[in-house]
């Protein structure tokens, strides 16, 4: 242990704590992470990450390793008992962030890659094998008491404390407030296997990624990532009424369930465990210096593969806000926007996950037949759309309505800028970004606006301007068409890649003025 006083103390070193430690470490913040276990949790839960998370992790120094430890997702097909397709989610489609919508990972391998990246952050101290047993806060800071197996105790302090401490979070209990139960609950046996040499999904005859909505035994069949050239696959079987976790976790039972799909000659069992899938949302995500992120704030059924992704989004939303506060560019009122922005977003993802859960968790054949008919006749309710940001520090029209396009994710593209080529995030950098088409509007913004923009770290990408090596261009030609669809020639993108708002070139000065008004209202550029 090197010291006891930090910018931020994190409790929990699961994937969300790791991601937040990496983001804060990349900013050079001093961070203490307290994790009760010395070894990483060995059992994979998450199997996929979406394009936004891929971009976030890449932007935090993992761009080289991610292609080595992940693979693009196939189409995600939902079948009825007769193997007729009910619905399909196009995970192969080109995403707004570049690359496929979804990539598959082996969670322990992903977690190792993130923690290897954290190990390279000199300002992050890991307290592994230390459990947080007590916490408190006052005007001066937050404080935790940690205890190790040998009974030793230490006290750490931080300006902020973030509970990334999972579904049974003690920070959530300390913050207080209700936990809304959205009412979905189902027990599933999760089995991970390793394909033996020469075995493929073709030889097994299973869909690349599918939900087999057979009421006799609702079953999930998905990739579970790769490691050292070895392929992991996952089966999940819903427990039927009367079945207990204990009987389902018997090895003989596991092989019995798998026998329709794979034999011991074809696959090696890696693990099997019964999980209860639930849908819970904390009502309070912050109390003073205490904040929640990840499963501590929300859990959802895994049918959309979004639990960990949502937690990493929490971390990314919080990290830039903590950065502005710790640099003295914002008061901690900015943290009020954290829950305002993240909660409705994750709430909609919970709805989407429950929608999918209700399609498959249907053990009654009569109900399943009704469901099949509704999908066949096109009368089944459509899945809720994948959300964008709808609340918080976003551009609003004079009517008070959210401005068209505000809150969407901005496209990520390859660019030429500053005499270099590469991904926008790497070449132009991270932070707020003003992207304009055909003109650099800086000369028309005025000294005061430019000074304030400089203070929040605004970056500029005046696309289609300059000559030769000094040209700014979008090598993928996706930004300009995207902006045109919204009638924009200027757009401000937030550090978390969500769009603050957009305007014509003529409206750029007014857009910047609104932006500055909104950031001031959120506590940015206000004296701390
Ligand atoms: C079967 C299944 C499949 C899933 N598939 C996906 C998927 O494909 N994609 C996806 O995005 N998500 C998926 N999820 C969800 C995902 O696994 C979780 O959302 C994610 O792992 C939560 O991460 P976390 O860091 O918030 O919490 P956790 O991983 O639970 O980590 C919390 C950490 O805090 C530590 N801790 C707790 N209390 C203390 C204390 N007092 N002191 C010190 N340390 C403490 C714990 O030891 C633990 O290491 C799936 C979940 C399941 C069950």
Q: Which range best describes the helical content: under 10%, 10-25%, 25-40%, 40-55%, 55-70% or over 70%?
A: 25-40%
Using the alpha-carbon principal axes, give the shape: globular
Name every ligand kind in the structure: flavin-adenine dinucleotide
The chain-level structural class is: alpha+beta
- CATH homolog superfamily of the largest domain: FAD/NAD(P)-binding domain
Number of helix segments?
15
| Strand percent estimate | 25-35%
The CATH class designation of the largest domain is Alpha Beta
Q: Provide the gyration radius in Å.
A: 24 Å
* Count of individual domains: 3
Low-confidence stretches: none
Query: What kind of sheet is the major sheet?
Result: 8 strands, mixed
Q: Compute the number of strand runs.
A: 26
- Give the N-terminus to C-terminus distance in angstroms: 31 Å
Protein model, in words:
The strands form five sheets. Strands 1, 2, 8, 9, 10, 11, 17 and 18 form an eight-stranded mixed β-sheet that branches. The protein has an eight-stranded mixed β-sheet with strand order 6-5-13-14-15-12-16-19, sandwiched between helices. The protein contains 15 helices and 26 strands. Helices cover 29% and strands 30% of the residues. Strand 25 (490-493) and strand 26 form a beta hairpin. It is an alpha+beta fold and 528 residues long. The protein has three domains: 5-71 and 106-179 and 279-336, 3-Layer(bba) Sandwich (FAD/NAD(P)-binding domain), CATH 3.50.50; 181-278, 2-Layer Sandwich (D-Amino Acid Oxidase, Chain A, domain 2); 414-521, Glutaredoxin (3-Layer(aba) Sandwich), CATH 3.40.30. It is globular and about 75 Å long. The longest helix has 25 residues, at 336-360.
